[in-house]
User: What shape does this take?
Amino acid sequence: MNWDDLIRDLEIKNQEALAGGGEERVKKQHALGKLRSRERLEILLDPDSFMELDRLVAPQGSGVGMADKKFPGDGVVGGSGKIHGRPVLVYSQDFTVLGGSMSLSQAKKICKILDLAIKTGTPVIGLNDSGGARIQEGVMSLAGYGEIFLRNTLASGVIPQISIIMGPSAGGAVYSPGLTDFILMAGPTSYMYITGPEVVKEVTGEDVDHRELGGAGVHSRSSGVCDLVGEDDRGILETARRLLTYLPQNNQEDPPVVDLKDPIERSLKDLFRIIPADAKTGYDIKNVIELVFDDGSFLELKPEFAPNMVIGFARLGGYSVGVVANQPLRLSGGIDSKAARKAARFVRFCDAFNIPIITLVDVPGFMPGTAQESEGIIHHGAKLIFAYAEATVPKLTVVVRKAYGGAYIVMGSKHLRGDLNFAYPAAEIAVMGPEAAVNVVFKKELASASDPEKRRGELISEYRDKFASPYQAAELGYIDEVISPDQTRMKLFRGLELLLDKIDKNPKKKHPNPPL
Ligand code: HXC
Assistant: This one.
């Protein structure tokens, strides 16, 4: 043997691994509009930054029909790379190799990536394209999934974990993404479900196709499992690159500051046009967000799920912040079970990763009714209270208009350790709206009044003057300052700067017990 032979031998082994499941299967993958595992990593990562690990790991299972299936790499490509110059750990399943199915060897490769990510404090991104547990391996593949789930759980709150669904994610393949912080889906080609259409038909008699059962539409609109949808592979991979810009590398670091050169003192006069002073008229809170935060910086998450609650990342003077806002255009901004769950998970993510939370409040209350009670709004609403109360990151709140009842308390109020609480002069902070309040409190008086409608009008006006304003809250110090809308950007920025080094702690405990 000489060096030339040794290098040639290595080249042959590498080429075998790069071939994946072979030309035919690659063609099929492309014909479906899907890229290959390696092609996806080229888009996700900075050029020439990928360092592959475990390229030569081979399937170990000796199950039915596996004797001639020794694909090196075993259906997943993993390693380290960079995104916008910062290190990441990645793995990308190769559907051309046994449908990207999970074998014990594949699981060991993914576990090595996750272990490295935890040890080095590096975000991890998993590209999922898999038919689930490798059927030929029996319990070995189940063991592999279990090892991955364990690491996803231990890594939670330590490093950001992002899952991108780029094809099938069937059976056990759904639960690793389900344990990570964000799930992104390639719109037309991805689907996730715990069992496929055939099993569904057998068990429930339901006739559904892959898309109806677990397509991006289902998970972005109904289940809320999906955070962001892309138009194709390239689109969602570029979105993942953008998402990372708002996040720190791990829970010990702050998110990167990116100066977008948008002046803090820029005029916000348009807010007077966007927000009607009359609380009965709707408006789009996203227009407020776009105007207040750095130009073009808002990245909305779960836009189609519970649209009455808006969440996403933005920048303020270059600092990464999490934005939570009621949307008056949907359910008048009322908080239902889904909205509470959506915001609670987001607040907890921001808190875990040192991202300040800015809350814009315009909320008539929690949504009442039998549907909400049956869905468990008591627990879901409590999740949101828990998340805000527990969060120790800087918390800044602006009451734009309505802030009634329990919804006032939960949306970043002083009582749940809001650090700086502002309100506009149009804000109404009270137990309930004037009309409902007068009906409850003055029921008897109105029943016996000579002109009930006139008296009702007087009482509503009296109640509005006394309570439906920010001034009682300001007198009590629950609102730190009543501000004009055009001061919002500047006040929030100054507050944020003040709070960046804030230290706050929760009592020592093993872990809390939120109403999960
Ligand atoms: C082994 C698999 C496989 C699997 C697919 N393949 N899924 N091999 N184990 N789970 C192989 C196929 O045999 C085929 O091999 C290749 O991958 C491509 O599969 P096709 O069926 O031709 O592709 P397509 O038509 O696109 O359909 C994709 C699919 C389908 C919908 C994902 O393959 C499917 O239904 N697979 C099974 C899904 C499933 O039930 N998984 C197990 C879940 S149970 P060749 O050699 O022909 O290319 C589970 C339990 C874990 O995961 C629980 C842990 C908590």
Q: What stands out?
A: The radius of gyration is 26 Å. The chain has three domains: 3-244, 271-432+469-499, 434-467. The mean pLDDT is 95. The domain at 3-244 is CATH 3.90.226.10 (2-enoyl-CoA Hydratase; Chain A, domain 1).
